[in-house]
Amino acid sequence: MSPRTAPNLPDEGLAIGFQPYLPVEMRWERAVADGLPLDVSHAFGIFDRTLCGVQQVGMSPSDYGWLPQLGNACRACREAAGVIDDRWPQAMRGEDARVSVARRL
Ligand SMILES: [Zn+2]
User: Fold this and answer.
1) 55 CA to middle of ligand 1, Å?
2) How far apart are the CA of 5 and the centre of ligand 1, in A?
3) CA dihedral defined by 27, 73, 1, 91, rounded to 10 degrees?
4) Upper half-sphere CA count for residue 44 (Cβ side, 13 Å)
5) Which of 55, 77, 95, 98 suits a disulfide with 51, CB 3.0-4.6 Å?
6) pTM tops 0.90
7) What is the pLDDT of residue 35?
8) Cα of 100 to ligand 1 centre, how many Å?
9) Residue 58, by phi and psi: left (phi above 0), alpha (psi -120 to 50) or beta?
10) Do 81 and 69 touch, CB atoms closer than 8 A?
């Protein structure tokens, strides 16, 4: 899956401009909705959709983090999370980058 065809990924400028960098396993919350199967863990994305593009009415992020390394993590969500993670320049990761971004605001 290329970054441009991945569903529901935040715009590059949006992602970098408004969110501090977080590692994949700290960034996403597990999506919960009546219609979602319980045996697969999807990451809550944006606009009531999972990262992989599943939309369910009433979907919300749970209180639990979405952990891509767990066996029940949705594969497509994992790929999308990886694509987003790859967009972050190494220079913008880590504590120093977070401080300098904050100073500019
Ligand atoms: Zn998914």
Assistant:
1) 10
2) 15
3) 30
4) 19
5) 77
6) no
7) 84
8) 33
9) left
10) no
d(CA 19, ligand 1 centre) in Å: 21
Tens of pLDDT, residue by residue over 12-25, are 444 444 567 888 99
Cα 58 to chain centroid, rounded: 19
The identity of residue 46, as a single letter, is I
Q: How remote is the CA of residue 38 from the centroid of ligand 1, in Å?
A: 12
Alpha-carbon separation of residue 94 from 21, 26, 48, 98, 101 (angstroms): 7, 13, 29, 7, 11
- The dihedral formed by the CA atoms of 39, 67, 60 and 14, expressed in degrees to the nearest 10: -140
Neighbours of ion ligand 1 (CB under 5 A): 42, 50, 52, 74, 76-77
**Measured in angstroms, how far is the CA atom of residue 18 from the centroid of ligand 1?**
23
Instruction: Judge whether 81 and 43 are in contact, CB under 8 Å.
Output: yes
